């Protein structure tokens, strides 16, 4: 039995520790709700330059900045220009987009193939379609690299209900990598799309405790990073740090596309990714 005074101090210490943990979890949840991402991942990304082209979105994970003009965009060995309009859509020039138009309006959405990484806007397939229509239609490109059906749905929903954008046709370009993204990269929270569990789907149970700490705390996540000797990274871009030249042919043979022919990888994430993709694509109807 502990002496009375020691017992009182013991209960005070334990009570304060429990209170500290509760406050830490509350602060972590509030931070994530306000910023759309866990504190740990913001800290891990480290400081970034101002006037970034690729930015976070609280509603649908990430986006392009409005009215950007980046003349030294890079993808692999390609250096090209990226311009966006007033909606943050890739465009031929910086311009203000009216929410209504008398012309028939087409909105394209997809991932890096539709955004046109490595190409000037006029060379992308959306730019070629716009040029072929010779101004008879209003053509908008809402695509951003690393998008997938869950983001297609939430971004289009946001554009219609919050922005008030009106259009006649929505053209969605699916990519082979969308399936893995749906299975392991993104998830819904109370405010929108956020980062999902890291690592392969089959490894989630092993890292659940670590992810709960990183997702929902600040002080505890910071102490964990000290124990792991982790340090924030300094990045020029908020979304991409490594760029590799890829073609559609060799992308199929990478892990992200091998669910199409490898049964073990299909079972790992392909089946689940297809199911989720079908659910989110249906919400666009």
UniProtKB/TrEMBL annotation:
Regions that span the bilayer: 6-31
Keyword Transmembrane: yes
Position of the signal peptide: none
Annotated coiled-coil segments of the chain: none
Keywords for this protein: Membrane, Transmembrane, Transmembrane helix
Protein name per its UniProtKB record: SGNH hydrolase-type esterase domain-containing protein
Source taxonomy: unclassified sequences, metagenomes, ecological metagenomes
